[in-house]
Amino acid sequence: MDITFQNIVLIVLVLLTGLSAGLCFTWANTVTTGIGRLDDFGYLNAFQQMNRTILNTTFFIVFFGPFFLNLISLYVFRNTSNSILLLLIMASAIYFIGIVLITIFGNVPLNELLDKTDLISASTDELRSLRERFEFKWNRYHLIRTYASIVSFLLIAISIIQITKQNIKL
């Protein structure tokens, strides 16, 4: 592989993983805590609208980009030291399990449950019940995603430091 391609892979990988970690952190730190103060209808309506809005090209690039670039980085840096390869494998596995799988099997089903609900016609009891089924579980899954994205980002950053130390030009 050309060293320029290695540079591009690492730069875009660290950028997208950092954006993903920032998105998860900001969502956990401000968005869910802020809307958590709303009444049941306000909370569910805000969450429903944000879930519908976030599904766009930019989000999908930031969300799935690190997963695919992690796989590419494993190939590109397959001939580096075992410690660098191990860092990249761990970053890839943590991102895949902690972000991709948790989202697909944890958050998305909850989002779909919320999206199917006609909040306007739901009773106060139905809104309360839906929020009770949704909020705690969604936030718990999201906390896992937040930690996983941050750890993945840190492992990639450490691998870049190790690559630099081994005189593999960035």
What oligomeric state do these chains adopt? single chain
Figure out the total of helices.
Answer: 5
- What's the SSE pattern? HHHHH
Detail the poorly predicted runs. none
The residue fraction in helices comes out at over 70%
How many independent structural domains? 1
Please report the total strand number as a whole number.
Answer: 0
| Global shape | elongated
Taking all Cα atoms into account, the compactness measure Rg is 19 Å
Distance between the termini: 13 Å
**Largest sheet report:** none
List the topology elements.
Layout: H1 3-35, H2 40-54, H3 57-76, H4 82-115, H5 124-165
Describe the protein's architecture and organization.
- It is built from five helices and no strands.
- The mean pLDDT is 92.
- By secondary structure, it is mainly alpha-helical.
- The protein has helices at 3-35, 40-54, 57-76, 82-115, 124-165.
- It has one domain.
- Helix content is 85%, strand content 0%.
